[in-house]
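tokens incoming
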């Protein structure tokens, strides 16, 4: 399995890029946010999800590479396509329509409306995504969801704040309540889902 590609970004078009590694050019499907995060051309590192699909009638196989600027985005993509009804194409469309942290916060907060606003997602699928992934994402350690780059409570706080704001809460009040809880639990910071629950309880 191809885990990542490190090489030269030689071409970019809507929805995909071409990365050349040792003389071989790899066509990689990417989200809009990944495309924006990568340089226009030159050296790059892309995290990869590799798929193979086989046509039952013809027996022909199709190989595709999906690329991501961060491990966190790839991890969320893999969680999304694990939900019945979310294809790789739709998973990439979701991460093109919304930033990864917005999608994750919406799932944790049960914000079905935000997901329904994404082209290709109906009410039933939006509800299924929230039901299947809400608990799973909330139980993940912070470093897994943030690609191992989080330091202190900054990423935890920002993700919780984003989820609370999406619920219609006042930013200043939500941020103040979040900080109070983080100060109280400084020795053992709560997980994201618990932090959101505690904040809602104290508002």
């Amino acid at each position: 399995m191809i885990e990542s590609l490190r090489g030269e970004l030689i071409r970019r078009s809507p929805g995909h890029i071409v990365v050349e590694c040792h003389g071989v050019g790899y066509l990689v499907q990417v989200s809009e946010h990944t495309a924006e995060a990568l340089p226009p051309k030159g050296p790059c590192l892309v995290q990869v999800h590799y798929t193979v699909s086989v046509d039952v009638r013809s027996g022909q196989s199709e190989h595709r590479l999906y690329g991501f600027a961060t491990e966190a985005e790839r991890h969320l993509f893999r969680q999304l396509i694990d939900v019945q009804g979310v294809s790789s194409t739709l998973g990439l469309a979701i991460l093109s329509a919304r930033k990864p942290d917005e999608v994750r916060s919406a799932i944790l907060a049960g914000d079905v409306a935000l997901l329904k606003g994404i082209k290709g997602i109906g009410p039933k699928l939006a509800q299924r995504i929230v039901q299947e992934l809400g608990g799973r994402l909330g139980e993940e350690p912070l470093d897994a969801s943030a690609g191992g780059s989080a330091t202190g409570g900054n990423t935890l706080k920002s993700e919780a704040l984003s989820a609370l704001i999406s619920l219609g809460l006042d930013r200043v009040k939500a941020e103040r309540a979040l900080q109070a809880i983080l100060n109280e639990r400084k020795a053992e910071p709560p997980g994201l889902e618990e932090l959101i629950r505690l904040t809602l309880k104290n508002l």
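note: The radius of gyration is 19 Å.
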